[in-house]
TrEMBL record:
PANTHER family found in the cross-reference section: REVERSE TRANSCRIPTASE ZINC-BINDING DOMAIN-CONTAINING PROTEIN, REVERSE TRANSCRIPTASE ZINC-BINDING DOMAIN-CONTAINING PROTEIN-RELATED-RELATED
Superkingdom as given in the UniProt entry: Eukaryota
Organism: Sesamum angustifolium
Protein's name in the database: Reverse transcriptase
Length: 229
């Protein structure tokens, strides 16, 4: 993923860099699999940029490394890839003869590993969390009536549970870590960008997002526990 200013000289420099990279490495950009995303540029400039790059124009939301990128807050439908991935894993496992302990371990190790990638980026809507809970509950109990509430399953073992992470609590904890990194000005490119472009010297706790600011950042910077609906 490459970024540049939305003007033709900057785009031309970017394409020259790609050309030089191809000459040196022998690796070329696949134009058929590449897109250009723009914001706030005139139509004539956009047309020239498309002609210069020979890339198709992309539209949000788009998946990048399995995560949807969007200019607006994600809807429940945008989380379908996560739910579908979990459902797909469960379908494959259901065809096998697995013990209760085996199903439990798959939920804890595999499914919750899949969820983690999303949970550290987005506040999941309650509708999505409930869908995932239903899938995991049905898989754990082999589609039979659950004798124990899922909330109890998610308690630590020393408290009588089975040690499955509660998605909502886990999501809040991971997003709180993001806020802490911003507050501490962690040495990462994204944190530096947030502080320079959005906070501009203001404290994270005093920052008031504007209407056009990133909806994801605005939502995350609220009390993470209030992000569920």
């Amino acid at each position: 993923m490459l970024f540049s200013r939305g003007d033709l000289p900057s785009i031309r420099i970017l394409m020259e860099c790609l050309q030089e990279f191809r000459d040196v490495s022998g690796l070329a950009v696949n134009n058929a699999k590449s897109n250009i995303f723009t914001a706030g540029i005139q139509n004539d400039t956009l047309d020239e940029a498309l002609a210069m790059t020979d890339f198709a124009r992309g539209h949000m939301p788009v998946r990048y490394l399995g995560i949807p990128l969007a200019a607006q807050r994600l809807s429940v439908t945008d989380y379908s890839p996560l739910v579908d991935q979990i459902a797909g894993c469960i379908r494959k496992w259901t065809a096998k003869s697995l013990s209760f302990a085996g199903r439990l371990e798959l939920i804890r190790s595999v499914l919750q590993g899949v969820e983690c990638f999303w949970l550290q980026v987005f506040p999941l809507p309650m509708a999505v969390i409930e869908k995932i809970h239903r899938l995991c509950r049905a898989f754990l109990w082999n589609s039979k009536r659950a004798p124990v509430a899922w909330e109890d399953i998610c308690h630590p073992k020393e408290e009588g549970g089975l040690g499955v992470r509660h998605i909502q609590s886990w999501n809040v904890a991971l997003l709180a870590r993001v806020l802490w990194n911003i507050h501490c000005k962690a040495d990462t490119l994204w944190v530096k960008w947030v502080n320079e472009v959005y906070l501009r010297g203001a404290s994270l706790w005093d920052w008031q997002p504007k209407k056009d600011d990133s909806p994801l950042l605005s939502t995350t910077c609220r009390d993470p526990g209030q992000n569920y609906h």
